[in-house]
Amino acid sequence: MPPAFAWSHDTPEIRAAAESGEFSVARFSGTNAELQAFLERVWSDAYSGRMAFPVWSEEYLDWQFARQPDQPDRRLAVLCGGEVVAVLLGVPYRFRGAAGQIHGAHWSWLSVDAACRGQGLAALLDRERMQLELDSGSDLVVSYRFTGSKHSLAEKPSSKFPLKQFARKMSFWVRALDLRKLKAWNVNSVEAFCSGLVAPFIPEVRAGDECRLVQQLSDLQINDCVDLLSSQNQQHALAIDWDVQSLRHQLNGSRISQTVVAEVSGTIKGFINFHVLPFQGRTREPIAIIDIMAMKNLSSTMQRALLKAALVNMRQQGAILAMKLRCGDEPKLSLLRTGFIPRLPDSVLVLQWTKQLQTIDRRKAIHVLWR
Q1: pLDDT at residue 107 greater than cutoff 70
Q2: pLDDT digit string, tens, across residues 297-341
Q3: Pairing mode, if any, of strands 53-54 and 267-280?
Q4: CA–CA separation, 248 vs 267, rounded Å?
Q5: DSSP secondary structure, 100-114, as one string
Q6: Which of 39, 133, 157, 167 has the smallest set of CB atoms within 10 Å of its CB?
């Protein structure tokens, strides 16, 4: 752990600065190793033993925050006494809605040091974020608020922000991959008990040879994937508007990102993109997060084959659970037939507009990433 982040910020100097309101917002100037250490320390302090949370690695942060041409650095930090005491991080995306293209960003990773909570730092970062997005010509900020635990420090709805919509409740499809470890990992004692009960009913994952993991997709394959997503997302209320450059970074930008494809006559007809991250619960275990699921053009048999191939690869990497955001862009029957279970809503999708409030049809599917 880098020295600058190895000690607690709950010191007399920090407390005195916090009481006097001597805070300033700047772009985070440290390394991603330092950022990773700060995030892990703050989240562990807030949630360890209380609720599960992801432990983002330096490699993951390198992937997410790789500099993009003509885009500002969206890693914001609050400084107090020369030390980082809070961060809020964003990644630019181009979206598409009913009215056409929407320039925006996905923001997450809000982390405030325990010694400085209750000082309005989240609001300070939010103001700086919105000014940055306005200056960049962005229309939309996409984020989430976790509501699935009483220990969550997530923001609650407020009438103070008329351009901020708590747009819809969100949840996950989950598929157990190692029930013994999942039971030991789960902080929720009821869910841990239930996972033990369903153990006999979750079949082992077996896959055929129809689908395969591709480490690096060629430009021709990425073009196929862009076309698939463009067709699949055409009628969505809100979707990431992938192009070759953005999808290349998503699929090939890091060894963390992995893609299983279904090919017919050498052409990709469907694919699943996922990454595996450690999550801290009672224990620390790898969990697979499915980012993209493009299977509209596959038969139900091929959909299940592709899902099984992805699950096998996740299991081989030690993942104890697979998760897919429930947003309507997934083949529900195929998920159910491969052992996925829909969870109850535990998060809220927040859409914060920079200039003018836009309405997103709640009845239609969306395609956004979970971060």
Answers
A1: yes
A2: 999 999 999 999 999 999 999 999 999 999 999 999 999 999 999
A3: antiparallel
A4: 17
A5: EEEEEEEEEEEEE-G
A6: 157
